[in-house]
Automatic annotation (TrEMBL), chains A, B:
The UniProt record lists the keyword Glycoprotein: no
Matching SUPFAM superfamilies: Class I glutamine amidotransferase-like
Protein name per UniProt: Glutamine amidotransferase
Organism: Streptomyces albospinus
UniProt entry keywords in alphabetical sequence: Glutamine amidotransferase
Upper classification of the organism: Bacteria, Bacillati, Actinomycetota, Actinomycetes, Kitasatosporales
Pfam families noted in UniProt: DJ-1_PfpI (PF01965)
Domain of life: Bacteria
Residue ranges annotated for the DJ-1/PfpI domain, each copy included: 2-161
């Protein structure tokens, strides 16, 4: 079972690593990182460099496609080689998936028309213009399309999909293997739960904050 | 504020990326991946390659040290350049931290003697021989030493430490930024919670399973 994770410059690392660390533990899984060009790709914050081993033409029939999100997603919204590749491999996938703003790329490639899907909460409002019905759920299954909410939700998506692919025993073994017994120190992980000033900070300066830049009382140069 | 994440061959990716994606969003954070040699390092499953930009000698005064775990930890238990570096930079850190079996490396370097610390649940029994009092808690603070349980716990550790460093507002903003509102599909993330056969599978074949190899009805060649 080949699992292809699409990368591009300025991806968000955890978007890619959540599915990698869950789906990659499925029996028989072979994970391949794929991009328009092979070699070094820098994440959104620049300090992490991941090496891509396969070009688009090297990966023609993955069983599972994963498209992570990140600031670099905005450069992937026009039709071109990446969209053509996504459409071509999607024709043969068992599951086509995304994390965070990766769903906007799937939608722009035309795969999510008329479907329910999710995205990072700050980008959900971009979905209707792409013909997608936005959902606030953390993981959304619509046929073979599985979309997850922001960044960390790829772990939940990976486990839910692992259960569909290989059954509860395997998925629970993966969960215990990565000791996923989450105990966040705050209950602030969704806009309905976080303090209003926290939601407002991200609405106003999300791009800057998520790029690892300063905020609040410091200079915020980007919105 | 410099955050140094120590890498080595056969690290577990999520161990490193959890703290990266949380502490890396602190105001003024500068993350650097550091290793005995710069360049490509492969994770435990081999399919992920991360590029290390800094050699040990390039990083002399990090404010925060993060040591992730993974199968490659076993090669870092003897004294040598990595232990010398860990001891040298620890003398100046504000926080010295680990995820998963990274705490065994900190312990082997002599930093956790007489302290409470945690580790991946499958490796907790290795701690007493290193002079450490093992704790089953997910995140353990003992002085400036912060250790986290297996793999995914680095996200919780990163958020808890972000709160100590920069206060609740910033930590909650990071949590909402990465939309960390965990909803695992099973309650199987700790050995006390998972079905007995799941715990047994990992006790018997953990090394093979966590390396992304097959298990159960398939050939298990490694224990």
């Amino acid at each position: 079972m080949q699992i292809a994770i699409l990368l591009y410059d300025r991806f968000t690392a955890l978007d890619a690593i959540g599915p990698y660390e869950t789906l990659g533990l499925l029996p028989g899984a072979e994970v391949v990182f794929v991009a328009e060009r092979t070699g070094l790709h820098r994440s959104d914050k620049g300090s992490l460099g991941l090496v891509v081993d396969a070009a688009l033409s090297d990966v023609t029939a993955p069983d599972v496609l994963v498209v992570p999100g990140g600031p670099g997603q905005t450069a992937l919204m026009e039709d071109g080689p990446v969209h053509e590749w996504i459409r071509a491999v999607d024709a043969g996938t068992t599951w086509t998936t995304s994390v965070c703003t990766g769903s906007l790329v799937l939608a722009a490639a035309g795969l999510l028309k008329g479907r329910r899907a999710t995205c990072h909460w700050l980008a959900l409002d971009q979905m209707p213009a792409l013909g997608v019905e936005p959902s606030g759920e953390r993981v959304v299954f619509d046929g073979k399309y599985v979309t997850a909410a922001g960044v960390s939700s790829g772990v939940d998506m990976g486990l839910a999909l692992a259960g569909r692919i290989a059954g509860d025993f395997v998925a629970q073994t993966i969960q215990l293997g990565i000791e996923y017994d989450p105990q966040p120190p705050y209950d602030a992980g969704a806009p309905e739960k976080a303090p209003a000033e926290v939601v407002a900070a991200l609405r106003d300066h999300g791009r800057s904050i998520l790029a690892g830049k300063r905020w609040r009382d410091e200079a915020v140069t980007e919105r």
